[in-house]
Amino acid sequence: MKTAPKTTPEAKKPKLWRRAGQCLYVYNPSGGYYARARIRGKLKTHSLETKDRKLADRRLRDWLNDQDRMDPHAGDMTLEGLAEKYVATLRGAEKTVSIKRRVARELVERWPSDAPRRIARIRQGHIKTWLAGFDFGASAYNAHYWTVRAMFAQAVADRIIAENPAEGIDNAKRERPRRLTPSWGQFREIVASVRNQRWSEHGEDSADLIEFMGLCGVGQAEAAGLCWKHVDFIKGEMLFFRVKTRTAYGVPIFPQARPLLEKMRDAVGGHPDPEAPVFKVKDPKIALEKACKRLGFAHYSPRSLRRMFVTRCIALGISPKIVAQWQGHQDGGALILRVYSHIIDAHAQREAAKLVAEYEGVDNVLPFAPAAVR
Hints:
Strand order of the largest sheet: 1-2-3-4
Number of strands: 7
Structural class: alpha+beta
Strand content: 5-15%
Distance between the termini: 104 Å
CATH topology of the domain at 184-306: hpI Integrase, Chain A
Shape: elongated
């Protein structure tokens, strides 16, 4: 009588892997497909995240193609290396660079302890978990997400990883902010109030800066960087440098601003030093805040003056594309159209009223559309 061969405990264990094709395996406990291949002498296993054979075949081909595009000398870069490499490339406005540096530091310091630190193993879910660990608003969320996405995009461009794991995450929706904007009349009262502070050491200089910012729609940084060599009275042009985008742009010397500039030029003898700044005061916030308090107005900021200028331009029918050029934008007016759409819509209604007036034979067109048109 023959006895059955003895089986070892190892032989009784089911096999974890079943070969389904070249470089394609099935993990028996889950039934999921995996890619397994020796890449540059090193065995790599990659989950294809599917149980469907046809989809697994497509993903296997894509994965193998990605491995061919990878730089074999890139090594196994970690989050620390990624952050250091990204920070070294940062350029632009100091405030923006500072924010990106902080995000890169927080990516390293606050990365989930149970998530891989090798960037080749990081997936979208790990980045979502990291973002969920912060208690901040939509703007801060988007700033963190955009910076991390840019970091991994650089790694893709350098062929360190094949795909950006941060792609496809939704931005946080921001509530539309309530932007305070003074009327033209309020602006003139503010300038007069600042200028009438005779006992203030910098009252006149602050009034000049506030008036110029409102009349020309420039920001505080642009006005502070304006020197007399940038003001060409003959050509009727001013040259500004937009700190945020690190670009120079020219605007006309607006008729409403020319008397102010000529007065300031004459006050220094008519021939100022070309290298000297036009404005002695760099920050009008305190003078502006005190004037608003004296007049009982809302707390308007220097940015409010810029919004007043843009709003006034649109209300007067100036093309958003031209206004964007005056602001140093390079998007053809897209940002102006999006932010000031309510002003543009109101202007469009007034323009539509002209058609009604012409049809009815009215000579004097009303400034607002009739009720029937609204």
